Recover the amino acids of this structure.
């Protein structure tokens, strides 16, 4: 039950995305750029941006989104109460999936360290 990805754990509205982008707390690598903003809800929420410039075919964009959602679903209990927006920078397929997931984990670890040091 704890590993579900419900509607309340998603950023859905434009205003929610804009508030995260406005704070400009971001980290990036070759695969992703991750923005973060603290929230008062007590749990992490995720928003995804995968543009057509990154992957022309909808199938590839959807694969990227499914991969990120699955990583978030599994790691959500360990994440701080923040709103995260993940923007894809490079398309990847089945062969590069492990590299992309490792890169995503590293970005979230960096953001968690920054949040911990700024709240101290």
């Amino acid at each position: 039950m704890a590993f579900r990805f419900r509607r309340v754990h998603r950023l859905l509205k434009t205003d929610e995305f804009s508030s995260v982008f406005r704070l400009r707390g971001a980290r990036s690598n070759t695969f992703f750029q991750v923005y973060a903003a603290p929230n008062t809800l007590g749990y992490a929420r995720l928003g995804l941006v995968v543009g057509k410039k990154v992957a022309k075919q909808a199938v590839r964009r959807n694969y990227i989104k499914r991969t990120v959602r699955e990583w978030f679903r599994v790691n959500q209990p360990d994440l701080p109460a923040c709103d995260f927006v993940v923007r894809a920078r490079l398309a990847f397929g089945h062969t590069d999936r492990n590299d992309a997931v490792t890169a995503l984990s590293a970005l979230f670890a960096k953001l968690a360290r920054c949040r911990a040091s700024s709240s101290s």
Remarks:
- The mean pLDDT is 87.
- The first strand starts at residue 26 and ends at 28.
- The beta strands are 26-28, 32-38, 45-49, 82-88.
